[in-house]
Amino acid sequence: MSHAANDDATSRIRVVLADGDRLTRLAVKETLRRHGAFVIAAEAADGDDAVRLACHYRPDLLVTEAVLPRLDGLEVVERVAQRAPEVRSVLMIRDDDDEELGLVALRRGASGVVCKADPPQRIAEDLLAVHAGGAAIPPRLTTAVLGELRRLPEPGSGLRPVRSPLTDREWEVLDLMLAGDSPAEVAEQLVLTRDTVASHVKNIMRKLDVHSRDELLEAGRRMLEPVAA
Length: 229
Fold this sequence. Notes:
By secondary structure, the protein is α/β, with parallel strands linked by helices. It is 56% helix and 12% strand.
């Protein structure tokens, strides 16, 4: 009997739930409990704990509120994407009018955005879709996502060397620097903190074995020369 119970628990979708409000956590837990497909692996009341628990338990899903003490939900999503990329993150927002917040979450690595105001069954179905490899995007946010796609560069721009030591995010930072943006402007463009941009720049310099901004830009241009030719 105990083996059957254990098998049932391991077959369910493991969730780390992060929300600073205890009552909200209880409400989300009850929604997932009633559905039956989910099990709460751990709960976090602040952003630091959310990252720590997600990286420790490596759940199927991290479901996090956008506004958290100590570290906001967007930073949580980005850090978990970097440290535990197999964990699918879902950002909870108050309503689907908050388009910009949802877009930023998707840019930073979230697999979905859910609205707290949605019916419980809809929230559970959205989480199931994310777990199955799909995406959960509120209807009004879909329009904003399409607008972002239309603003993407034409095919052929933003090319990368086939074998590059840099991550996609590091290339985004380097591209903007090569275009003349300062670190502060890069942070604003990519909706990152200045400390995060500084960390990316430090990693780029280490990977390219350079020691100054000028050397960094020169190395970046050299890497792109074969692509442009």
